[in-house]
Specification:
The chain is of the alpha/beta class. The protein has one domain: Alpha-Beta Barrel (TIM Barrel). Helix content is 43%, strand content 10%. The protein is built from 17 helices and nine strands. The N and C termini lie far apart (59 Å). The structure holds zinc ion (ZN). Zinc ion (ZN) binds next to loops.
């Protein structure tokens, strides 16, 4: 639903001439009609010029919450988040004053499944958030796990640092490990990464006939979702296959999220959500957090990426592994320039179009921000870090979004979901821990 403010003679704050209202129509009825008309047409471009003071105030007052940033894949190998960085997307100088809360990705790649190192990796990633980010910079970051923590941090002018696991295989098929991660502070988990695991199907390999799929979630997978509800950990469907989304939505007794996805109606990348999925997610109180990756944003980029660029990932990985920071920066800058020359990146306008579409389909209360910074190779240059958010604020204002709308998109909506998930866990607090195992229960031993 649009929250565009309807100005009419019924509105005492109105500075504009009243809108014509039919005779004998009550103010309440007229207002309802106007709201109906506005919600049908969604945001209208603004006629008043947008001032920089207005942009700055809204950006400052909003609690900007990014639900997905992969800088942890760099901090875990020694990257200093406090130093300005020329080629990455995330560093403290560009976060400070703009970002209210970060969900740092506890990213566990599919490669850790082999040899059973997934939990080891997850624990190392949790440690890099706690040691290399929060403990190393106590004046700037504060450990947070709840909506109230996020609001407190904003008041204290600190960045709330939260964690989300990326890749459900991190629990190594054990609800005990899931509970351990919750206890360590993890507050969401994507049910899969690019790989289908033993209980949930991934978008990444759903078309691969060599992989055994589960039609979404296995019975154990549903118990994972229910245990997440009981604990108060958000169920995240980014990276999952469509049947997994539907099974998770049906199973969960709390709202669910997509921490870094977009609209498939705009870019057909299947990591984006269909309109039907966005509607269903919204109907259950959830939120889709818009990914800033160029292929998520733009059909043109998605269609041409493979032919124009090939697989950039190994090249970026090789550049990132260079020990000398200057050499690393130079290699990354060269890669970026080369890829921009071959295929122009997506734009700020395309981020606005994604947000606008998601709002039209799901409603203003069900859209947020999940940048995927430092997890994707290409983002719009006008929006390549947190200090660029004033540009997005301006673009949204120009499109007709109000300060209230923008605050919801930037953080209000995900805060509401966090509260709902916390509330659900509070309701379930006397429910015993789920004991399900994926196979036969191991025999008790001394
Ligand atoms: Zn991801």
């Amino acid at each position: 639903m649009s929250t565009l403010r309807a100005r009419s003679a019924c509105d005492p704050a109105s500075e504009r001439p009243p809108l014509p209202t039919p005779r004998h129509t009550s103010c309440a009825a007229a207002l309802a009609l106007t709201l109906l008309a506005l919600s049908a047409t969604a945001q209208q471009p603004r006629t008043k010029p947008v001032t920089q003071a207005e942009v700055d105030k809204i950006t400052r007052d909003a609690i900007l919450i990014d639900t997905h940033d992969d800088v942890t894949s760099k901090t875990v190998t020694g990257y200093d988040i406090a130093k300005p960085n020329k080629t990455g997307m995330t560093d403290l100088p560009r976060m400070k004053g703009y970002l209210g809360a970060e969900f740092f990705a506890v990213y566990v790649g599919a490669n850790y499944v082999e040899g059973n190192h997934s939990a080891n990796r997850a624990l190392e990633m949790i440690d890099t958030v706690k040691t290399d980010i929060i403990a190393a910079h106590p004046n700037d970051f504060v450990f947070a796990t709840t909506a109230a923590d996020v609001e407190r941090a904003h008041k204290d002018h600190k960045i709330a640092a939260l964690m989300g696991i990326e890749g459900g295989h991190a629990i190594e098929d054990s609800l005990r490990l899931l509970r351990d991660y919750y206890a360590l502070g993890v507050r969401y988990m994507t049910l899969t990464h690019f790989n289908t695991n033993n209980w949930a199907d991934s978008q990444g390999d759903i078309d691969d006939p060599k992989i055994t799929h589960h039609n979404g979630l296995t019975p154990f997978g549903k118990q994972v979702v229910l245990e997440m509800n009981r604990l108060g950990m958000m169920v995240d469907i980014s990276h999952t296959a469509d049947p997994t989304f539907w099974a998770a939505l049906e199973t969960s007794t709390a709202p669910i999220i997509a921490s870094h996805s977009g609209c498939r109606a705009i870019s057909s990348y299947t990591r984006n959500m269909t309109d039907e999925m966005i509607k269903a997610l919204a109907a259950k109180g959830g939120v889709v957090q818009i990914n800033f990756g160029c292929d998520f944003l733009s059909q043109r980029y998605f269609d041409n990426e493979k032919t124009a660029l090939g697989d950039m990932r190994p090249k970026y990985m090789a550049a990132m592994k260079l020990a000398d920071p200057d050499a690393r920066d130079a290699a990354m800058a060269a890669l970026k320039a080369d890829s921009y020359a071959k295929l122009p990146p997506a734009t700020l306008a395309e981020v606005v179009a994604q947000i606008d579409h998601a709002v039209k389909i799901g409603g203003i209360d069900h859209v947020g921000i999940g940048t995927d910074f430092d997890g994707v190779g290409c983002v719009p240059p006008e929006l390549d870090s947190y200090n660029k958010f004033p540009a997005l604020t301006r673009a949204l204002l120009e499109k007709g979004y109000t300060a209230t709308d923008i605050k919801k998109i930037y953080g209000g909506n995900i805060l509401r979901v966090m509260r709902a998930v916390e509330q659900r866990a509070a309701e379930l607090k006397n429910t015993p821990a789920i004991e399900a195992t994926i196979g036969p229960k191991p025999a008790a031993t001394e």
